Write a sequence for this structure.
């Protein structure tokens, strides 16, 4: 469903993403983890069509995003890590705006919006301007807006930022449900417990390159350690447990 | 601690200069160049006016003294108003205030550091552009060093007084108005400014200057020129001191200097005292979420549905979002009111022109003015576009990722913005040109020519605004009005002025030929006809170029943009 071919991004001489090759099958929740500055957000932004690769290709559902950006974006839902929104729109107006961008038909749109607002517990705030929303509410609204056109691929950067435990649980359940229905979720996260819990496949990225990938079991073998994803991650990325040097 | 609180601004400025990339340096240089040019023009004009005054016996000095008084009064009013606006943002709305207030710094330290930002932000431009005027005075009156030294010790307390007054006004307003309406206060202030501008304009009565009868009655003429001045105004004290230095009037100005400085220092003490009592409660209230007003909601929905009707779903969504954001952003509204004042003053000028008393044959003058009017209306439309159309792309702000990650193509995005602004600008420009031409009582030929010319000019002016707005975007602004004052907006204004001038230059010759032939009752030669036709074809080409080229450049820039 998602394929990278020699994907590279160079910022002013620095390789943020270095020759990535990856294949994510349909219906998978794919975890993309790595330390700060590893190139996760850059990769995600290239997939969402917000950044252009310096070299290489991204194929989503067999379509090259550089050649057919509109067709690709029509089947993708993007959830960025920072909830920048149009502050002067109300929640419901923002969802209508997103629906318009995806050329959604008017019939049953109100029903769809009402369902999403209810699912993300935003119904009572639907008519309030986004500027009065809390960080978590904005994040929930972004996730709701990414779902409005029923995308087949979800690209999500740090999904749990700003969410309360109830919201986080809800999002996890939704991701699992989507994947069961055949959608593909590509998720970048620092929350290793989340990746371990919901991702069927994981890639660990460091300094712009994939240093390990596969299922949790595959990663254990590659790292040569037993234990949870955190110990595998620290072993592979050469990190240490916090406090080891203190 | 105070030094530490103002250090982020200093360090940011230093880093900005140090790490400037070459294109940014070019922008800075262009801006400095344009600023210097404006500075020199201002200096030259003031010098010329003062030289003219000094050549007038008896009244020359009185006129120069009045002008100085007016200049100081206007500067003082502008300074107070600009301090009110920037104080609201620096003391109550800036995002980094949370860090300052949560730090161990005392309230007075935070208040003073923010007040210093406010003084700098509000006064640097007035000081820079006030300088050529003062220099011209110095040159014409052969002032000695004493005058230039006086300038420093006069302007400094004047700035402090205006800053303290501005900050005081905003502290009282935020204290007594519901804090959620902080931005509404800006709107209120803008209305007040319009009233002040209007009153000042009425007091200045520029139309009297073209009235030849006024010179017969000197007393009346001076009465008409007299600015609303009062011996209790600090600007009056400042004028007295400087005038005494310029004319080497022997009487001591110590009393006025003491008045200025003691008022300034007293105002600082009062401001700090007031801040201790009401600043923090106002800041705290300003943090509370603004509850949405439902008044006018139905009206807004009607406007949205009417405006978006002719467009497809993607463009309609984008335009609906822009219209809603525009009507809910009070800072936009306040600017709109200011520009409305600009248009009113513009039309007012035409209504008071004493055409019947002019020594030039009226019909020529009316048609020449009507032609000039095309250019002036074009510049008014450009000024409005610089504020509203040029920032249209930047107005997406940090939420631009939503558009970038959506299936909406850059081309459709840009053209949607273009068409959304085109119709209101066409209506505005036609109303402006037809009404002013009606006041001028021009011939039907000039009426038709002006209407058609401005109609096509608007296509280019809007395209330049949208296109260059995409070439020089600023998605990281704190306030959209910052975009309209950036270097990109200056480049837009220059491009738009060149475009308008080019069209007028191409039309001026042929129109003069046609009008002369008409009034003299002679026929136009074949060569003249060829010239007329070529010029108008040239106008069409310039217009096409003004639409296509900036839009293409904007599209390229958006395609290259990486969010």
């Amino acid at each position: 469903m998602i394929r990278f071919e020699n994907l590279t991004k160079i910022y002013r001489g620095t390789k943020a993403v270095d020759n990535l090759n990856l294949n994510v099958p349909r219906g998978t929740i794919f975890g993309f983890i790595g330390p700060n500055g590893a190139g996760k957000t850059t990769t995600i932004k290239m997939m969402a069509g917000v950044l252009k690769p310096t070299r290489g290709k991204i194929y989503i559902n067999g379509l090259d995003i550089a050649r057919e950006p509109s067709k690709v974006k029509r089947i993708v839902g993007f959830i960025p890590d920072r909830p920048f929104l149009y502050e002067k729109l109300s929640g419901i107006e923002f969802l209508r705006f997103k629906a318009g961008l995806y050329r959604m038909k008017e019939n049953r749109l109100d029903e769809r919006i009402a369902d999403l607002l209810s699912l993300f517990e935003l119904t009572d705030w639907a008519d309030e301007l986004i500027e009065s929303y809390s960080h978590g509410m904005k994040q929930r609204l972004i996730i709701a807006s990414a779902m409005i056109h029923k995308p087949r691929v979800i690209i999500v950067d740090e999904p749990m930022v700003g969410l309360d435990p109830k919201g986080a649980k809800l999002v996890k359940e939704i991701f699992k449900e989507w994947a069961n229905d055949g959608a593909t979720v590509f998720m970048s996260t620092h929350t290793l417990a989340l990746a371990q819990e919901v991702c069927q496949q994981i890639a660990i990225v460091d300094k712009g390159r994939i240093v390990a990938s596969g299922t949790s079991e595959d990663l254990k073998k590659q790292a040569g350690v037993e234990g949870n994803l955190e110990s595998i991650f620290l072993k592979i990325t050469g990190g240490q447990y916090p406090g080891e040097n203190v | 601690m105070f030094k530490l609180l103002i250090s982020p601004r200093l360090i940011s400025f230093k880093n900005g200069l140090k790490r400037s990339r070459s294109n940014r340096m070019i922008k800075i240089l262009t801006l400095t160049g344009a600023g210097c040019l404006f500075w020199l023009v201002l200096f030259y004009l003031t010098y010329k006016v003062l030289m003219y005054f000094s050549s007038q016996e008896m009244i020359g000095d009185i006129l120069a003294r009045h002008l100085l008084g007016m200049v100081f009064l206007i500067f003082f009013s502008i300074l107070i108003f600009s301090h009110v606006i920037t104080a609201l943002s620096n003391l109550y709305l800036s995002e980094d205030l949370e860090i300052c207030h949560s730090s161990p710094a005392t309230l007075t330290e935070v208040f003073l550091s923010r007040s210093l930002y406010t003084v700098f932000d509000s006064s640097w431009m007035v000081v820079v552009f006030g300088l050529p005027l003062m220099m011209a005075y110095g040159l014409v009156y052969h002032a000695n060093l004493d005058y230039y030294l006086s300038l420093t010790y006069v302007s400094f307390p004047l700035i402090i007084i205006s800053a303290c007054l501005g900050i005081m006004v905003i502290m009282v307003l935020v204290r007594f108005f519901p804090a959620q309406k902080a931005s509404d206060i800006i709107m209120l202030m803008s209305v007040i400014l319009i009233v002040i501008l209007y009153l000042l304009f009425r007091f200045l009565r520029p139309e009297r200057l073209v009235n030849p009868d006024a010179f017969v009655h000197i007393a009346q003429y001076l009465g008409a020129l007299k600015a609303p001045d009062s011996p209790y105004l600090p600007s009056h004290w400042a004028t007295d001191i400087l005038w005494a230095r310029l004319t080497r009037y022997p009487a001591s100005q110590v009393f006025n200097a003491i008045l200025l400085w003691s008022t300034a220092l007293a105002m600082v003490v009062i401001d700090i005292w007031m801040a201790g009592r009401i600043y923090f409660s106002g800041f705290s209230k300003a943090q509370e979420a603004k509850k949405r007003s439902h008044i006018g909601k139905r009206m807004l929905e009607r406007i949205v549905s009417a405006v978006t009707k002719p467009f497809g779903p993607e463009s309609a969504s984008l335009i609906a979002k822009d219209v809603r954001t525009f009507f809910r952003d009070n800072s936009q509204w306040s600017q709109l009111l200011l520009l409305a004042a600009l248009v009113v003053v513009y039309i007012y000028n035409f209504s008071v022109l004493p055409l019947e008393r002019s020594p030039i044959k009226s019909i020529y003058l009316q048609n020449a003015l009507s032609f000039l009017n095309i250019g002036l209306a074009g510049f008014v439309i450009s000024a409005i576009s610089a504020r509203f159309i040029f920032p249209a792309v930047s107005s997406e702000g940090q939420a631009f990722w939503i558009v970038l990650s959506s299936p909406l193509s850059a081309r459709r995005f840009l053209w949607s913005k273009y068409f959304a602004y085109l119709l209101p600008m066409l209506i505005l420009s036609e109303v402006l040109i037809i009404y002013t031409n009606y006041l001028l009582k021009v011939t039907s030929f000039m009426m038709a020519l002006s209407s058609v010319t401005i109609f096509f000019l608007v296509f280019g002016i809007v395209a330049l605004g949208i296109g260059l707005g995409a070439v020089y975007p600023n998605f990281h602004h704190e306030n959209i009005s910052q975009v309209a004052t950036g270097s990109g907006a200056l480049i837009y204004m220059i491009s738009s002025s060149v475009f308008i001038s080019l069209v007028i230059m191409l039309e001026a010759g042929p129109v003069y030929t046609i009008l002369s032939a008409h009034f003299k009752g002679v026929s136009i030669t074949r060569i003249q006809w060829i010239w007329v036709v070529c010029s108008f074809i040239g106008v069409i080409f310039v217009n096409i170029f003004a639409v296509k080229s900036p839009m293409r450049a904007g599209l390229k820039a958006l395609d290259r943009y990486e969010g």
Remarks:
- Chain A has two domains: 1-75+153-246, 87-150.
